[in-house]
């Protein structure tokens, strides 16, 4: 019996499993998911790509648009400007976020919770907010203008400062996660071997966080190069790719050239995305399951130094935020500094008035509700079902793609696709629906990863147990999977809500007069010189996001209390 | 192969015919055929990666085989999805639903059957009593110990009264003491219910104590099927002898129809395999089969040896014997009694014997000493 009798088996017929109801449901679900992603992502991008090879009459002109683009210095210059701003901002954010995260995770300084909360505030604000604040601080009538010694805040300088503020919490979150895992045994071993503190830092701490740092670099680079709002408000004559797209499309109605710039903008984003994925794949778990968690020890000198550092950084964040808040209440900057609420009477500055704000709330709510449903169901199908390998492969790939697509590019792609003559889905153009669909797609990947992570933590055999008990997958999903993953579901919905509330880049091309959004009116009011009203609208958005976030924290805590009987830890 | 377990006269409950499973280029199961009889407790035993779990999952329909057929109760189930097969399963992780109470977990399959609430409750109580946990109905899995969770998982698997119970390493996640206890409990449960049971394990002790029959697997093939005594006493291959229990492997040369030469010593033995005179073979003998008491020069297969090393292991001592002036070594287990009575100590010269009926002869396996 031990003798190998392998080749014989090859002649036997290959067995194919019959499909049960769950298999059919699952396959239908995956097909729907693929169809959704094709319509909301792949086909629009394809329209964008093909548009960049056409002239204004729609005739195919090959690379002519690209040749024109790269041979026009005024246009091509933006590539360098964008890269410059992105690299400089990343180089500043990385060390700041690392030290801040180090203080939060590895020191015994005071008020860690407060510092952590403070640093995360910018996430609740549209990227336009720091730009507006900087205008008030260092702009033509800024009260700290003299600190610049004659340099102008409008341009690369302003963009970089605003980007650092805007990107800091994103960087901090990854760094905190990277520094949260450490094996105390490594530090004890280093101590026992007589390594100096500096040597321990460079041989244990830094290598452990290496991939987190690299990953942060790519994420921040992408954020900066694809952001539109900051450059729009404070960029002045300093052109970057993101503002170029806007100028080509809205200013000159040159959609073809807009498509070319969009495609050019897609390249660095995709390169950073792929590089990041490769880095992640290289990352091996340095911290094994048996690791002993590291408890930071007191070191007064270090702790106080870090406390001072965090106070300065936190103070700057608070300062920029406070500036915008103050400006929003000032009667007439800088001549009449008495406080007023009239800047919040948005109807006086923009035809939509408060309507734009409520549009944003509506968009954010729909995006959160529908988006969470689609994303979680999609992640469930990909994570918890078997078979249908090629369909799952395609869907998995498409779920990761949105991360690499800048909002502006996606918005532009939607114009080309949904506004095309003969598209049966054209009716959603210029409605709330297209804004919701666009927002869900724009923020799909991060939500998807959150859902996937939560689903991966569940026992992989729940589905096998259900089928052995003749219970349908759907029932097990409703009774077990969703309740267990509820915290992640809440996380996703809040992420979608806040992002839909604050984003401008993706929706700037897609709103109509009826569906104008709060963040868009900030740009409009700023353009018309109503900077105080713009600041007021930005603060309204911050307040809304913050309120929702606080409600989320409270809800999560209540949920944890009520389910602590069965949740471990 | 006629001891206790095999009921060769009965029709098999589960019949596996020429099962092969491929993962890409890797063949996890190679042309496996096996019959399991009604009410039997069968263990699939083997090192990790031997294909035992793959075989179990193919029987369950969770990971379908590449080719080959499976019959259960005279019905072909080869292509059926898991939901259409008749089995209950307990995983190593137990896979209890964390947000449901013990009662809800056990009754999970019953609710979907549309059984009336009262009946479900009665059945759940009955099942929990069966596994000895009548008081835990309202607790959540996280509030139970590992052993208790394991019992709940068994109760849940039995809820629909399946014809076949599949246990995938059900005891591996538990600590040694609980494991030994649950071993006998599962065994008793089986004796009471007489449900045909397959358990996958890599723990030979578990297999030896629990199974009616053991299926020893290695690298995707079945090495031996037999009762625990068979597998232990008469391993069919050097692999089985090595994997189940401890064995001395001694290089030898065939010198006669029932005689081999090991380290210059002529040994009588039963040659099942007949490689022919002049061939290299491997002799296998369990350490506890080495005899030292009442051995005389006339005892069959007796030869002098010197105690090179002695290791105290509680109820017995493991003794390393140097043979032929240290050219070869044999490991022997002597009870404390023997050690005391014969004053066995390091350096002692004595006569030992390898009883012919205890010697197994295998073709020379290159990877073994």
Explain what the structure shows.
The complex is a heterodimer of chains A (569) and B (369). Chain A is mainly alpha-helical. Chain A has 23 helices and two strands. Chain A is 69% helix and 1% strand. In chain A, a hairpin with a 3-residue loop joins strand 1 (330-332) and strand 2. The two termini of chain A are 50 Å apart. In chain B, the strands form four sheets. In chain B, strands 6-7-8-3-9-10 form a six-stranded mixed sheet, with helices on both faces. In chain B, strand 12 and strand 13 form a beta hairpin. In chain B, helix 4 (117-130) packs across helix 5. Residues 1-7 of chain B have low confidence and may be disordered. Chains A and B meet through helix 1, helix 2, helix 19 and helix 20 of A and strand 2, strand 4, helix 3 and strand 10 of B.
**Structural class based on helices, strands and sheet pairing of chain A:** mainly alpha
Helix content of chain A: 55-70%
Distance from first to last alpha carbon of chain A = 50 Å
Shape of chain B: elongated
Strand content of chain B: 25-35%
Would you count the extended β strands of chain B for me? Answer: 19
> Which band does the percent of strand residues of chain A land in?
under 5%
Low-confidence stretches of chain A: 1-9
Widest sheet, order of strands of chain A: 1-2
Number of helices of chain A: 23
- Tally of extended strands of chain A? 2
Radius of gyration of chain A: 26 Å
Low-confidence stretches of chain B: 1-7
Secondary structure: elements and pairs:
The complex is a heterodimer of chains A (569) and B (369).
Chain A: H1 6-10, H2 21-51, H3 64-71, H4 73-106, H5 112-120, H6 128-138, H7 156-180, H8 184-192, H9 197-226, H10 229-234, H11 241-251, H12 255-282, H13 300-329, E1 330-332, E2 336-339, H14 354-384, H15 389-400, H16 407-418, H17 432-442, H18 444-456, H19 462-468, H20 473-484, H21 486-502, H22 518-527, H23 531-562
Antiparallel strand pairs in A: 1-2
Helix pairs in contact in A: 2-14, 2-15, 2-16, 4-7, 4-9, 4-13, 6-7, 6-13, 6-23, 7-9, 9-12, 11-12, 12-16, 13-23, 14-17, 14-18, 14-21, 14-22, 18-21, 21-23, 22-23
Chain B: E1 14-23, E2 26-36, E3 41-45, H1 52-60, E4 67-72, E5 75-76, E6 88-90, H2 102-106, H3 108-112, H4 117-130, H5 146-158, E7 164-168, H6 176-193, E8 196-201, H7 204-210, E9 213-218, E10 221-226, H8 228-233, H9 238-243, E11 248-256, E12 259-262, E13 265-268, E14 280-285, E15 302-312, E16 316-323, E17 328-335, H10 336-341, E18 349-353, E19 360-363
Parallel strand pairs in B: 3-8, 3-9, 6-7, 7-8
Antiparallel strand pairs in B: 1-2, 1-4, 4-5, 9-10, 11-12, 11-14, 12-13, 14-19, 15-16, 15-18, 16-17
């Amino acid at each position: 019996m031990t003798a190998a009798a392998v080749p014989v088996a090859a002649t036997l017929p290959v067995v194919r499993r019959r499909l049960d109801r769950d298999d059919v449901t699952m396959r239908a679900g995956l097909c729907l998911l693929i169809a959704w992603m094709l319509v909301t992502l792949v086909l629009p991008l394809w329209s964008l790509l093909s548009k960049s090879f056409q002239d204004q009459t729609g005739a195919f002109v090959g690379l002519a648009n690209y040749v024109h683009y790269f041979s026009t210095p005024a246009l091509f210059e933006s590539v360098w400007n964008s890269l410059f701003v992105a690299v400089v901002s990343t180089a500043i954010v990385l060390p700041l976020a690392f030290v801040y995260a180090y203080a939060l995770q590895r020191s015994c300084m005071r008020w860690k919770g407060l510092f952590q909360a403070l640093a995360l505030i910018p996430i609740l604000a549209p990227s336009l907010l720091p730009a507006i604040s900087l205008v008030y601080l260092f702009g033509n009538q800024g009260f700290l203008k003299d600190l610049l010694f004659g340099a102008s805040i409008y341009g690369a300088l302003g963009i970089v400062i605003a980007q650092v503020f805007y990107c800091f919490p994103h960087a901090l979150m990854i760094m905190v996660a990277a520094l949260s895992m450490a094996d105390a045994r490594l530090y004890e071993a280093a101590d026992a071997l007589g390594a100096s503190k500096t040597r321990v830092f460079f041989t244990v701490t830094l290598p452990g966080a290496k991939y987190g740092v690299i990953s942060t670099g790519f994420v921040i680079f992408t954020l900066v190069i694809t952001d539109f709002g900051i450059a729009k408000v404070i960029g002045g004559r300093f052109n970057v790719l993101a503002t170029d797209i806007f100028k080509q499309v809205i200013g000159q109605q040159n959609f073809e050239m807009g498509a070319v710039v969009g495609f050019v903008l897609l390249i660095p984003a995709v390169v950073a995305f792929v590089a990041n994925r490769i880095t992640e794949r290289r990352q091996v778990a340095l911290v094994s399951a048996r690791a002993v968690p590291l408890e930071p020890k007191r070191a007064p000198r270090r702790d106080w130094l870090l406390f001072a550092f965090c106070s300065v950084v936190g103070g700057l964040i608070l300062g920029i935020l406070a500036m915008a808040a103050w400006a929003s209440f000032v009667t007439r900057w800088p001549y009449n500094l008495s406080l007023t609420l009239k800047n919040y009477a948005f109807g006086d500055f923009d035809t939509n008035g408060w309507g734009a704000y409520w549009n944003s709330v509506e968009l954010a709510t729909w995006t959160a509700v529908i988006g969470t449903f689609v994303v979680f169901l999609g992640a469930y199908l990909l994570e918890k079902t078997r078979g249908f390998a090629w369909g799952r492969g395609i869907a998995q790939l498409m779920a990761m793609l949105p991360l690499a697509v800048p909002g502006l590019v996606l918005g532009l792609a939607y114009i080309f696709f949904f506004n095309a003559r003969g598209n049966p889905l054209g009716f959603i153009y210029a409605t709330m629906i297209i804004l919701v669909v666009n927002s869900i797609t724009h923020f799909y990947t991060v939500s998807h990863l959150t859902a996937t992570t939560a689903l991966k933590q569940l026992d992989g055999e729940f589905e096998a147990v259900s089928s052995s008990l003749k219970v349908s997958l759907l029932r097990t999903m409703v009774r077990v999977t969703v309740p267990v993953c509820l915290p992640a579901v809440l996380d996703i919905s809040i992420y979608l809500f806040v992002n839909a509330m604050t984003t401008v880049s993706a929706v700037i091309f897609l709103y109509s007069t009826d569906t104008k959004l709060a963040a868009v009116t900030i740009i409009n009011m700023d353009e018309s010189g109503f900077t105080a009203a713009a600041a007021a609208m930005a603060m309204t958005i911050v307040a809304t996001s913050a309120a929702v976030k606080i409600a989320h924290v409270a809800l999560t805590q209540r949920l944890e209390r009520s389910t602590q009987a069965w949740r471990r830890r | 192969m006629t001891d206790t377990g095999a009921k060769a006269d009965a029709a098999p409950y589960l019949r596996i015919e020429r099962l092969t499973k491929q993962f890409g280029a890797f063949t996890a199961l190679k042309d496996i055929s096996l019959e399991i009889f009604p009410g039997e407790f069968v263990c699939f035993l083997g090192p990790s990666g031997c294909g035992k779990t793959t075989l179990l999952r193919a029987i369950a329909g969770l990971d379908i085989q590449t080719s080959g057929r499976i019959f259960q109760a005279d019905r072909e189930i080869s292509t059926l999805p898991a939901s259409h097969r008749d089995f209950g399963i307990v995983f190593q992780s137990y896979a209890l639903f964390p947000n449901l109470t013990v009662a809800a977990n056990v009754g999970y399959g019953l609710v979907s059957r549309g059984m009336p609430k009262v009946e479900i409750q009665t059945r759940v109580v009955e099942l929990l009593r069966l596994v000895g946990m009548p008081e835990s109905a309202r607790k959540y899995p996280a509030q139970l110990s590992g052993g208790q969770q394991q019992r709940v998982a068994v109760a849940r698997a039995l809820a629909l009264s399946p014809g076949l119970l599949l246990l995938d390493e059900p005891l591996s996640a538990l600590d040694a003491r609980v494991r030994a206890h649950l071993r006998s409990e599962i065994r008793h449960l089986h004796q009471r219910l007489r449900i045909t049971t397959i358990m996958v394990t890599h723990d030979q002790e578990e297999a030896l104590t629990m199974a009616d029959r053991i299926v020893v697997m290695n690298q995707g093939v079945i090495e031996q099927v037999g009762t625990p005594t068979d597998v232990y006493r008469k391993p069919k291959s050097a692999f089985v002898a090595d994997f189940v229990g401890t064995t001395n492997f001694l290089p030898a040369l065939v010198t006669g129809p029932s005689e081999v030469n090991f380290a210059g010593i002529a040994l009588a033995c039963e040659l099942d395999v007949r490689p022919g005179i002049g061939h290299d073979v491997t002799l296998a003998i369990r350490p506890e089969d080495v005899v030292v008491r009442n051995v005389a020069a006339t005892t069959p297969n007796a030869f002098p040896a010197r105690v090179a090393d002695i290791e105290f292991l509680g109820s017995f001592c493991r003794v390393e014997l140097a043979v032929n002036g240290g050219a070869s070594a044999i490991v022997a287990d002597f009870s404390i009694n023997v050690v005391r009575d014969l004053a066995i100590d390091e350096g002692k010269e004595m006569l030992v014997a390898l009883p012919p009926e205890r010697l197994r002869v295998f073709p020379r396996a290159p990877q073994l000493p």
